[in-house]
Write a structure and sequence with these properties.
The complex is a heterodimer of chains A (about 350) and B (about 550).
Chain A: H1 14-36, H2 39-61, H3 66-70, H4 74-85, H5 92-108, H6 120-131, H7 133-136, E1 138-140, H8 152-161, E2 172-174, H9 176-185, H10 190-196, H11 200-219, H12 226-245, H13 253-258, H14 262-269, H15 280-300, H16 307-324
Antiparallel strand pairs in A: 1-2
Helix pairs in contact in A: 1-4, 1-11, 2-4, 2-5, 2-8, 4-5, 4-6, 5-6, 6-16, 11-14, 12-14, 12-15, 15-16
Chain B: E1 34-35, E2 41-45, E3 55-56, E4 63-64, E5 69-72, E6 81-82, E7 87-96, E8 104-112, H1 131-140, H2 153-156, E9 167-172, H3 181-188, H4 190-204, E10 208-214, H5 218-228, E11 234-238, H6 247-255, E12 270-274, H7 275-286, E13 293-300, E14 306-311, H8 316-322, E15 330-335, E16 342-343, E17 357-362, H9 380-384, H10 391-399, H11 403-408, H12 419-423, H13 430-485, H14 496-517, H15 527-542
Parallel strand pairs in B: 1-14, 9-10, 9-12, 10-11, 13-17
Antiparallel strand pairs in B: 2-8, 3-5, 4-7, 5-6, 7-8, 13-14, 15-16, 15-17
The chains are: A mainly alpha (about 350), B alpha/beta (about 550).
The complex binds iron/sulfur cluster (2 copies).
């Protein structure tokens, strides 16, 4: 016997939500390909394929129906975020490994869709960066900066054979973050490095395209303003503070905004509903602390980017944050918590 | 149609959450309210209101007139039930009624004689009548809230210890999609509604009267505004955001006053009545007619949707026929609106005071819900919840049967409005989980109460045994003392010393028994048991076995 309510919002489903996220990522992917060469298509395709296959296998093993879960789009979002976080031109098996940790370990070992405590893509990323730091530091140089950007065939060659006609060093460059760290150690000022670091224009374009996608998500109410505002705000504030204290050691806030997966994280990774806080106040705390931690890891830690670890740390704190930030129920007096 | 907002429009305070819904109001507003022809048979349930059902005062074979009382209010929270036309009582028996449970309930079945003769109307002189007898008449005349909750109106019209309730709100929001009975009533009978409101205001001692109408009903707003000209009643257009028609939501919207949890709007000085109730009150007081009909919307997948003035007791099948009948492809019927209504199981069930709409579903407007997926914690439900609850958390704990946690998360503040289920991308039937959790908690509480009572009975028995023991010891001791004093144990008795010792021991034992009884804790016994103990104590000390108190 049907029960109330007898109607549901039209065109609303997990699938619709996930495909809106994918659509919002498209500008970023296109700009990525334009600025850094077609290698992103290879890595994107690989993670998509690996994630889908692993998801299907696990679903079959868990005796769950394939169709509703495979078509809900959540695994695609994981795959795309993983591809956009990882450097392109990694050997194919690293993409496979990242996908395995994202889908099997982070998602299904925690119970599958909706149950994961940690953001799957960030788990995949973190495992790779801890296990294969040397690979993870190499990013393709932006088009027009290095002497040569690999075309599609060369990219495939590099990814699958590991060795192309040319060695990867010819196309890749250490990330600006690494460069900064290395230069600071050898005595160059952070400002000088930031100013001289290559590809700021490519980075800017990429960051803007992610932000554009984020605004689309906001407009479609897939996400709320709390997470991006708190994350970026806290990140800028912390970076500014450190920069004011010691400009020679700490990069300026703009550098932090334009580097690594800051903006991607603000709009697409920290906002992953499953692993984020759900209360308005909780979101501010969750994302704000993630912003602070990101800058601290970048400034004092050993890893080239802090977003992934900041996200994972805050993911772990979500149940606690949520429990203590439940909104005041209508008709209840403030401060009474049960 | 445009209407100019009055310059002194009160500032609205938006309530939390809420959703915009496709209204589908135009389907049933194309023609004015129509009357139903007299039917051969009416089935009038004795429970049409919240509270105790009315007690039948007619039996099979009796002749009745329209407006004649056939069910007398029983207990405090109850109102009268009246014959919808003249005729003969065929039976007083359980019949299917429109209720979510689908169970049958006691009804008076009346065969119409076709003459529709009425009892002499008894208009009330409300200006001079004293408040309590006015309320009593309204109770007998069967007035109950017609917005769907059917709470006896006479109770809500009693300001009680507060002496007066400063603000009266007429609820014309009609926020559920498809339903238009209040819309049409306001369009066509605005001045009668406002006359009813004046009587209510008089009874409540209210200084201010506000009428809240959703802005998707411009014609109703215009007509009510026109009727309000020359009075200080303010007609306010409110945004069409469901559930603006919820009593607490409308109160907040219009006054900014937040009704405390588990409290009533009167706690913040506001009383809310549905516009239909105000109209019925007007008919009862000014025309002296008991409540025997109401406006019902018949809409959805029927040939001629519209609004009908329907006698209470009209079988819903006949009402559907009057609306041209269901079209092919009908997939079910809902009593009430699509957000909070319930599925009707049997069209033989009659229209009652609670039935404001019969909505016939079809597969296009009411597709079966897609299969549910796991919750992705998107928070859409929490953003939609007008009570600012965390529906996904409630769902999580209800699903895992952690009912204590659901209560800690204020499950009982949930008004089952359905906003959360409506917006959930995983299509989880959230409200079903809350209903399930609530009924489980109620069942457990009943069980606990039963267990408490059993425990209390057991304690009571122990106490009685103890007391009897003590009394016996006391009696023996008294006897012993008497014997000691009277010298029953003579000095010559060789056993005297031994007997004296025995008697003294008996006295000592009685004293100890008495002390032993005192500390027994009766504090946590239920009130009823404590009273019983007290009355027994009184009897015991008061006399020799005769029961002085009834
Ligand atoms: S709307 Fe549905 S999926 Fe989203 S948080 Fe609420 S219950 Fe979960
Ligand atoms: S049904 Fe209950 S939990 Fe859901 S939106 Fe309404 S009040 Fe909130």
């Amino acid at each position: 016997m049907p029960t109330s309510p007898h109607i549901v919002l039209a065109d609303n489903s997990v699938r619709a939500v996930m495909f809106k996220v994918l659509a919002a990522l498209v500008p970023g992917v296109v700009v990525h390909a334009w600025m850094f060469g077609p290698a992103i298509w290879v890595s994107l395709l690989l993670t998509t394929l690996f994630c889908l296959v692993i998801e299907a296998l696990v679903l079959a093993m868990r005796d769950l129906p394939l169709k509703p879960f495979l078509s809900d789009g959540s695994v695609l979002v994981t795959a795309w975020l993983l591809a956009l976080s990882l450097p392109t031109l990694l050997p194919w098996w690293l993409y496979a490994l990242g996908s395995l940790f994202a889908v099997l370990v982070a998602k299904h070992l925690y119970g599958g869709l909706g149950q994961n405590v940690f953001n799957p893509a960030m788990v995949g990323y973190a495992v790779l960066i801890v296990s294969f730091p040397a690979h993870m530091n190499l990013w393709p140089a932006p088009v027009g900066v290095a002497g040569h950007t690999p075309n599609l065939m060369e990219a495939l060659d590099l990814v699958f054979a590991g060795q192309g006609a040319v060695s990867p060093d010819a196309y890749t460059a250490a990330t600006p973050m690494d460069q900064l760290r290395a230069q600071v150690r050898t005595g160059l000022s952070a400002e000088a490095v930031a100013a001289a670091s290559f590809g700021l224009h490519a980075k800017e374009a990429l960051v803007l395209s992610y932000a554009l996608g984020g605004l689309l998500l906001l407009a479609h109410r897939v996400i709320t303003w709390h997470v991006p505002v708190a994350f970026l705000g806290a990140l800028v504030a912390t970076a500014t503070l450190l920069h004011l204290i010691d400009p020679g050691r700490h990069a300026d806030p703009l550098f932090h905004l334009l580097t690594g997966s800051t903006v991607l994280g603000a709009f697409f990774i920290l906002t992953d509903p499953v692993s984020a806080s759900t209360t308005p106040l909780g979101k501010l705390i969750y994302a704000g602390l993630a912003g602070v931690i990101t800058v601290l890891i970048r400034s004092f830690g050993a890893y080239p980017d802090g977003v992934a670890f900041a996200v994972l740390l805050m993911n772990a704190a979500v149940p606690f944050i949520d429990a203590y930030t439940q909104p005041r129920v209508f008709g209840h007096s403030r401060g009474r918590r049960t | 149609m445009r209407f100019a907002p009055t310059p002194d429009e009160p500032r609205l305070t938006p309530f939390p959450g809420g959703i915009r819904l496709p209204a589908h109001k135009e389907v049933s507003t194309q023609r004015p309210i129509a009357a139903l022809p007299l039917l051969p048979l009416y089935v009038v349930p004795l429970r049409q209101h919240i509270g105790e059902p009315a007690r039948p005062i007619v039996q099979a074979g009796d002749r009745v007139l329209r407006g004649q009382m056939i069910g007398r209010p029983e207990g405090y929270v109850s109102v009268g039930v009246h014959a919808p036309t003249s005729g003969r009582v065929l039976a007083v028996e359980p019949r299917p009624v429109p209720h979510p449970s689908g169970l049958a309930d006691l009804c008076v079945v009346i065969e119409a004689d076709g003459e529709d003769r009425a009892v002499e109307p008894t208009p009330l002189d409300w200006h001079v009548m004293d408040a309590s007898s006015l309320r009593n008449r309204l109770r007998e005349m069967g007035l109950a809230g017609l917005g769907g909750a059917v709470f006896p109106s006479f109770i809500k019209l009693n300001p009680g210890a507060r002496r007066s309730i400063p603000i009266l709100i007429l609820n014309g929001a009609e926020c559920e999609p498809w339903i238009t009975c209040d819309d049409l009533l306001m369009r066509q009978r605005a001045s009668e509604i406002l006359l009813g409101a004046q009587i209510m205001r008089h009874m409540l001692g209210a200084q201010q009267v506000l009428v809240g109408i959703e802005d998707n009903k411009p014609q109703a707003i215009a007509s009510m505004m026109e009727a309000a000209i020359g009075s200080d009643i303010r007609v306010v257009a409110v945004p069409s955001i469901y559930p603006a028609g919820g009593g607490k939501q409308l109160t907040y919207l219009l006054t900014g006053r937040e009704t405390p949890a588990h409290g009533l709007t009167t706690d913040v000085g506001v009383q809310v009545f549905n516009v239909g109730t105000a109209y019925a009150l007007y008919r009862a007081v000014v025309h002296g007619e008991p409540l025997t009909s109401r406006i019902v919307t018949v809409t959805g997948h029927v040939a001629a949707p519209g609004n009908f003035e329907v006698r209470l007791g009209t079988p819903i099948a006949d009402l559907l026929a009057a609306a041209g009948g269901e079209l092919t492809g009908a997939t079910g019927r809902v009593i009430g609106g699509p957000m909070m209504g319930f599925e009707l199981k049997d069209t033989a069930a009659p229209v009652t005071k609670a039935v404001n709409c019969v909505l016939v579903k079809d597969a296009v407007h009411f597709p079966p819900p897609p299969p549910a997926l796991p919750c992705i914690r998107c928070g859409a439900c929490a953003r939609a919840c007008p009570m600012r609850l965390s529906p996904h958390e409630l769902y999580w704990y209800a699903r895992h049967r952690d009912f204590g946690k659901t209560q800690a998360l204020n499950l009982f503040d949930c008004i089952e409005c359905g906003c959360c289920s409506y917006v959930c991308p995983s299509h989880i039937p959230l409200v079903d989980y809350y209903r399930f959790a609530k009924s489980e908690i109620w069942a457990r509480e009943r069980e606990k109460k039963a267990a408490d009572e059993a425990r209390a009975r057991h304690e009571f028995r122990l106490q009685r045994l103890e007391r009897e023991k003590q009394e016996k010891a006391e009696r023996l001791a008294k006897k012993a003392a008497e014997r000691l004093e009277s010298g029953a144990v003579s000095a010559q008795d060789p056993d005297a010393e031994r007997k004296r010792a025995i008697l003294a021991a008996a006295i000592e034992k009685a004293r100890k028994a008495k002390e032993g009884v005192q500390p027994r804790n009766v504090d946590d016994l239920p009130e009823a048991v404590r009273k019983e103990i007290a009355s027994i104590d009184a009897r015991r000390t008061g006399g020799n076995g005769a029961d002085p108190t009834p």
